[in-house]
UniProtKB/TrEMBL annotation:
Pfam families: 2OG-FeII_Oxy_3 (PF13640). One of its GO terms (cellular component) is cytoplasm. GO terms for biological process: regulation of translational termination. This is Prolyl 4-hydroxylase alpha subunit Fe(2+) 2OG dioxygenase domain-containing protein. Transmembrane segments: none annotated. Coiled coil: none annotated. One of its GO terms (molecular function) is peptidyl-proline dioxygenase activity. Residues 126-225 form the Prolyl 4-hydroxylase alpha subunit Fe(2+) 2OG dioxygenase domain.
Amino acid sequence: MENFIDYQKLEDRKTELHKSWNDEKKAFRYIVFEDFFEAEAAEKIIQNYPKVKQVEPTGNFEEDPNWKYTTYVNQNNKFVMTEFDNQPIIKQVFEELNSQKLLDIVQQITGIEDLQADPQLFGGGLHQSTKGAFLDVHVDFNYHPETNYHRRMNIIIYMNKDWKREYEGYLELWDMDKKIQIENVEPRFNRCVIFETNEISFHGHPHSLNTPEGQSRKSIAAYYYTKTRPENEIASDHNTVYVNVEGMKGSVKNIKTGVRAFLERINKKDK
């Protein structure tokens, strides 16, 4: 079986990526780099990336048991998939993301040792966001709900060809002490972002997607854990913590989405 991840390119970049990861000018540690998957593998993955079934011309979506649909106050039009038994290509992607081979390389780049993968993909998996979608800036939950391991790292690979600036959906990284955006990452095809998960690693894509009908924002996400972490990073157990970086516009957006989510849940109960 041929590898999907371009391990040789990662090996060749290790020193460069390690230096970037440890850049003291950053509010928290992260790296952004291109060509995570082998070129041929990336094409194969996008060809096998499951679609969300859209009902034209209304823009509504059919119920698809393979995709979990999430809309609530701080998140809109996001779909998540974590079961891939009938999708060998996608299944291999996550087998490699959770492999010791990749973990060893990531440990060498980041200096964070004894990383543990999460085969359950809690919060991870295939992600797909459609027109109108957003994810408010936040820090992630900090403990795995079953193992109670410390969540230490996010790895995201974007799978979007010909992405345009007007589509929005750029990953924003924020320094909330200074209240400034420190990075604005285009969700470009085969681009990888790795960042540490802690109490200051604020990130999201808060501006509503403005994609053409039928086009979505696609990403592949996995999270890594450790059994312990530095004492000065330990915090009490919490879920995702959101912040509003858009002022009044963000407040209005959240009210509208909250009402929509409430009505959708009421309608589902009535069916």
